[in-house]
Write a structure and sequence with these properties.
Strand order of the largest sheet: 5-4-14-15-16-13-17
Helix content: 25-40%
Structural class: alpha+beta
Shape: globular
């Protein structure tokens, strides 16, 4: 939505004059930066953010997906400054190691595969090639996967459709704490007022139940008309004060614990997030410019905390830089992320494990949806219902995509993986799997977050074998099919060979951090 459109929506009768954001961290300062950018002006609302230095933030949401590019543009960020200030590295996809079986890996890349031909998707010709004896994996047909594996990066060339770089998409891996500080500076420059203090009471109207303010330890009451709950897992307003129930999805996503620890730079510095399957969950590896972020997501029903921590520490590329940070969570979301005059943003509204780096996106999409349905002081029920239905649908779509990784596996080497293999998938996911297995077709519902290419990457990567392919793919004769596939591979490989390494690119753009800031052994 253009900024002007938001302003027109906002300047209607009975406008909201005071917005209060409870909680800082990534979610709070993303919301503050976006709202103060879009709603700026003499008739815009005041925006107050309340946070306490004494309360820590989760601070491990360090990997993103390409939608963050749009958010950064909304804020008017200079990309080189953003990368430098957050110590960010680029990201071209996620490498999944040992998920199908030990020793196997594949990349879920950003962007698309190959070249669509004869009006159908490229992967049907890839399936035809496999039938003809070509064993090449999908990764070879993706510029993002090939460049990521080679440690290369360059900006997409959307203005040159003949270039394979036009098929490229990218995101970032950054220091979440630095990102929050970076956005705080911008938000405060745009008029957001930060109030230091710990919330000890949520004040509500006796008749309507609407929140009217939050009381701090020093007795001050911060009053407002619209409240954004960015208080993390505590969900002070939405969960505790308004008592909105939580929809629990742990039967599909049984991991309920994580331990995180950063380490010094070592090993490969590819523009990829890595997810390595473990006996009771998985381990993330997120290389930044100055350090590596690591974590182990696991099921407490299948592994205890000490064992999970020891496993993580034994599999770091570098030396630990902090004490392990332990987290507890339940997969799912509040039944309503907007209730009365409170909207849950980020962890206060729900949680899905960061397997596909969707945590920051869910903050971003909630803020964008709030702006699309921005209320007047009347708080119209139709808009609130629409916000809630769209948000719940997005959570379900992401849930199904995550469950796919666990369900489609050959692993049976632990109780955890046997549980995952045997679970009954949600109905929508079951249909997607069956359709792909039957004919190689990939369906994408209602413009859901993950594209056909993403579903293809994970279904093929997780070993789901289609029994056939689109009949149009057989219209080329055998030799031409194989020749076209080889040509596409050559074009991708040549393009990657011409790209700079990620480190070279960062230096060329002036977004590399000083060498003294790099934490090495």
């Amino acid at each position: 939505y253009p900024i002007g459109t938001f302003r027109e929506l906002f300047l209607t009768a009975k406008p909201i004059s005071r917005i209060v954001i409870v909680g800082g961290g990534t979610a709070g300062w993303m919301a503050a930066a976006a709202l103060s950018r879009v709603l700026a002006g003499p008739r815009g609302p005041s925006i107050t953010l309340v946070e306490s230095e004494a309360i820590g933030t989760v601070g491990v949401g360090e990997a993103t997906i390409p939608q963050i590019i749009g958010f950064n543009k909304l804020l008017g960020l200079d990309e080189n400054e953003f990368v430098r200030e957050t110590h960010a590295a680029y990201k071209l996809g996620i490498e999944f190691v040992d998920w199908l079986r030990p020793g196997h890996s594949y990349i879920h890349p950003f962007g698309t595969y190959g070249l669509d031909m004869l009006g159908i998707e490229f992967h049907h010709f890839w399936l035809r090639g496999r039938e003809l004896g070509d064993p090449t994996q999908l990764d070879a047909y993706s510029i993002a996967a090939a460049a990521g594996a080679a440690g290369k990066f360059f900006w997409p060339q959307s203005g040159n459709p003949k270039s394979p770089l036009s098929k490229l998409a990218y995101a970032f891996q950054f220091d979440a704490s630095r990102y929050a500080r970076f956005l705080r500076k911008r938000a405060e420059q745009q008029g957001v007022v930060r109030q230091e203090g710990k919330v000890i009471e949520v004040v509500q109207d006796a008749d309507s139940g609407f929140v009217t303010g939050v009381r701090l330890e020093d007795k001050r009451v911060i009053e407002g008309e619209l409240f954004l709950d960015c208080s993390g897992f505590r969900s002070l307003l939405l969960g505790q004060a308004l008592e909105v129930p939580f929809e629990d999805w742990s039967k599909w996503l049984p991991c309920d614990r994580a331990v995180a620890v950063p380490c010094t730079l070592a090993g490969e510095h590819q523009p990829l997030t890595r997810s390595t399957a473990r006996p009771a969950g998985w381990q993330w590896r997120i290389p930044l410019q100055h350090r590596i972020g690591n974590g182990h997501v696991f099921s407490s029903a299948h592994m205890d905390q000490d064992a999970a921590t020891d496993l993580l520490l034994a599999n770091l590329d570098g030396d630990p830089l902090a004490e392990p940070n332990h987290l507890r969570f339940t997969a799912g979301h509040r039944e309503r992320l907007w209730d009365k005059n409170v909207i849950g943003i980020g962890l206060a509204g729900g949680f899905l494990e960061p397997l596909e780096s969707t945590a920051i996106h869910l903050v971003q999409s909630s803020v964008a949806r709030l702006l699309a349905y921005f209320p007047t002081a009347a708080f119209g029920g139709a808009e609130i219902d629409r916000f809630n239905s769209e948000t719940a649908r997005e959570y379900r779509d992401i849930r199904d995509f995550l469950v796919l990784h666990y369900k489609a596996t050959e692993r049976d080497d632990s109780e955890f993986w046997r549980y995952c293999r045997d679970l009954e998938p949600p109905e929508g996911l079951a249909e997607k799997i069956e359709l792909f297995r039957s004919s190689g077709r990939v369906i994408r519902e209602h413009e859901e977050l993950f594209t056909e290419a993403s579903w293809l990457a994970v279904m093929a990567g997780q070993g789901i074998e289609p029994q056939s392919y689109h009949p149009v793919a057989a219209l080329f004769d055998d030799a031409e099919t194989l020749q076209r596939l080889e040509h596409i591979r050559q074009v991708v490989a040549h393009a990657v060979s011409q790209m700079p390494t990620q480190d070279q690119f960062l230096a060329q753009q002036g977004s590399a951090i000083d060498a003294s800031e790099r934490l090495t052994r």
